[in-house]
Amino acid sequence: MLIAQPIGEYDKRLVILTRERGRITAFARGVRRQSSPLLAASNPFVFGKFSVYEGRNAYTLRTVEVANYFTELATCQPGVYYGFYFLELAGYYGREDLPAEGMVNLIYVALKAILKGSVPLTLIRRIFECRMMAENGEFAPPDEAAGIDVSARYALSYVVSCRVTELFSFSLSSEAERDFTRYVKQSLARCVDRKFHSLMMIE
Question: Domain containing 193: what range?
Answer without folding.
Answer: 75-202
